[in-house]
Structure formats: C-alpha cells, structure tokens
Structure prediction request, 124 residues.
Amino acid sequence: EVELVESGGDLVQPGGSLRLSCAASGFAFSKYNMAWVRQAPGKELEWISGITRYGDSEYADSVKGRFTISRDNAKNTTYLQMNSLKPDDTAMYHCTARRDGYGGHWSRLEYNHWGQGVQVTVSS
Prediction:
C-alpha cells in the first residue's frame, strides 16, 4: 500500500521557520519525482516546490528564496525547509509523488500519489 505521511506542521510566528517531512512507503521512492502542494483556506491547490529523482529542484515564485526542498533516498523521505514564513503561507501542505516521465509541469498537479497533508499556520 502506498503511503505518504507528512509531519512537522505547527503554529509559527511570522518570520519563523519550519521543516516539513514526508515519509514514503509502498513504492520505489528513488525512482519518483516528489513535490509539495498547498491549499490555503478558500483557495485552490497551489504547487510550491518539486524535486526530481536526480535531485533537481524547482520553486514557485511565491516561495522562491525562502523554501528549500530536499530528499533522502536512503530514508525514503522528502523535506521542505520553510524560512521567513509569512501569514500568506498558512495552508494545508501536501506531499505528492509521480513516476518519472509522468505529467507535465509541476504546476499542472498531475501526481500519482498524495499525502493527507499537514497544517501550517503562520500567525502572531
């Protein structure tokens, strides 16, 4: 059974940092490209970052320079380091996975697997 389990969400003050983790199981993690997608209250899903199986990363403009995606294939885990957090970053954050070669650009939200999500709230 495929599972993507996110952790690390919390309430943090503006300007603070968090690191999200996504533990994957049930598929060949090292052969998949991984991404983070978020959904703020009342808004649509928004892709924010992706990392290929080869370690190449890409970011949405809204988080570029503040967030860093990484992966540890030995631990089947993807991370999202979030710095300089803003209230606009408040959202449910989902980890996603897709087979290499599947789908178009990350922002098309074409993924094979989704996690349940973890809540990040940025507020003073």
Observations:
- The chain has a mean pLDDT of 96.
- The CA atoms of residues 15 and 85 lie 5 Å apart.
- The radius of gyration is 13 Å.
- The first strand starts at residue 3 and ends at 7.
